[in-house]
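Notes on consecutive records. When two proteins share a document, each keeps its own sequence and its own token line. Never mix them. Below: protein one.
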Amino acid sequence: MNLESVPTVHAEDVISLMSDSGVTRYRLKASIWDIYSKEGQTNWIFPRGIYVEKFDSIFQVEASVVADTAYYFGHTGIWQLIGNVKVINLKQETFETSELFWDQKTAQVYSDSLVRVEQQGAVIVSIGFKSNQEMNNYMFYSIQPSTYFEVKGDTLPRPQEEELKQK
């Protein structure tokens, strides 16, 4: 048995509440949370996914993050989220990608993967982006031509109406 491959701590069906200045602000849920410690370095692995909610002052969910797998590298302060990553920020904009990184030391979030962002009235598809950790100030690397914008109201004629007008 390789002891380096055995977690120092193994927890199942985890719900963890985190506070900021004595007020509960976050809830983390995970089916499995493994903690590995080696030579003063601690890494966390969430092999069956992670879900994190951010609460407002009256405990309403105002932002969330979900991913199929998550890693936290304690020595660098970097989170890596993999598979069906979905982030909803405070403006209720939705970010979806296959891989996302959060660097706690620089307070930056970034990805080099395809990302789909739903904003009010628009959908942006890009390969890669960078943002502050609040995800409200971001820059896209390569916006793809499949960017869509929502049309307000019913301004496009329906095919039946066009056919009736021609008769």
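Protein two starts on the next line and is unrelated to protein one.
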Amino acid sequence: MHYPSLRFKGDARSLTKEPISREAYKANLVEAISVLRENLNRTIVSIVSMWNSQLIFDAQSLIEKGKRMQCGDHYMEKRDILCNEYRKVAYEIQNERKFDSEDFTVVVQGVMDNIRDAFRNKDGAYDKSFYAEDMFHLSKYGNAVIGKFLWNSMLEPVGNKSDNVNLGHDFIPLKCPTKKTKHDMIE
């Protein structure tokens, strides 16, 4: 299987000065899902919508200084708008139902959609334990917390998914799949 437009070596970690447009982002996502649909059956493609940038980009500044990172030139505003547009694209693709068939569908997991701040613990204080040493990536703990909320979201019905979780409530139990949740996952 060869797809000439997919350039993993050149695209995987490239950072460009110009952001990828909403339209290009959607085209790339549609192309990727098309590849999956052509090559997989009995598949639920679960898209984690774009996180609010403050969770990662501003973490160090919020935790150490108590305020968002300052970059000037309206960078932060542009970044936040673009992240929001990318998030909307994921939902558009899900709601268009273009990829839905008897054995394939696309579902957005918007569990992080309404988180607009760096991680705070259960007492409400900013907490570095959620982040790796570089304060840009997540720690094992951060990945575990998000993984738990993501798992629970995957077992919720489309249109009724949690989208405003409190990451500081890491004691939330994991949900167990049932025959009903299996049906709800794809409806």
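For the record: The beta strands are 43-48, 104-109.
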